[in-house]
Design a protein that fits this description.
By secondary structure, this protein is an alpha+beta fold. It has one domain (about 1-110): Alpha-Beta Complex (Nucleoside Triphosphate Pyrophosphohydrolase), CATH 3.90.79. Helices cover about 20% and strands about 40% of the residues. Strands 1, 2, 3, 4, 5, 6 and 7 form a seven-stranded mixed sheet that branches. Strand 1 (about 15-20) and strand 2 form a beta hairpin. The longest helix is centred in the C-terminal third of the chain and has 16 residues, at about 130-145. The relative contact order is 0.25.
Length: about 150
Amino acid sequence: MRPDRREYPERPIVGVGAVIVSGGGVLVVRRRYEPLAGRWSLPGGALELGETLESGVRREMLEETGLEVEVGPVIEVFDRILLDETRRVRYHFVLVDYLCWPVGGELGPGSDVDAAVFVRPTELDPYDLTTKARAVIDRALELAREAPRVVR
């Protein structure tokens, strides 16, 4: 098995994430591993070789939350670069976050998370999300209002 090369990578890593909306709430997860171990965030992970972005989102959501999702529009694409105390790049991700809706499965913490819960947007403060995660959630909710999910 190949070692995990997310820490101190040779090049940026493509990651996918989601704002899963359902019943007036958004899904947040408490991360089990670095980066952001122990912090609440949006579910997501690294894209695998040969995997499309949308397939990666579906796989990651199932692995981390137990939910099968319908993948909607891209919310945002951004960098997350974290430096160590010597200013060396410890993590560098290019993240693509999608608006998603649950279509199956059962909510529960999966491989990389300790907890997964739906929270009303007005009740997110106690979860101490990063400023960027809050901005992505806000944009996702705007998108959901502007272009609601087409029921198939």
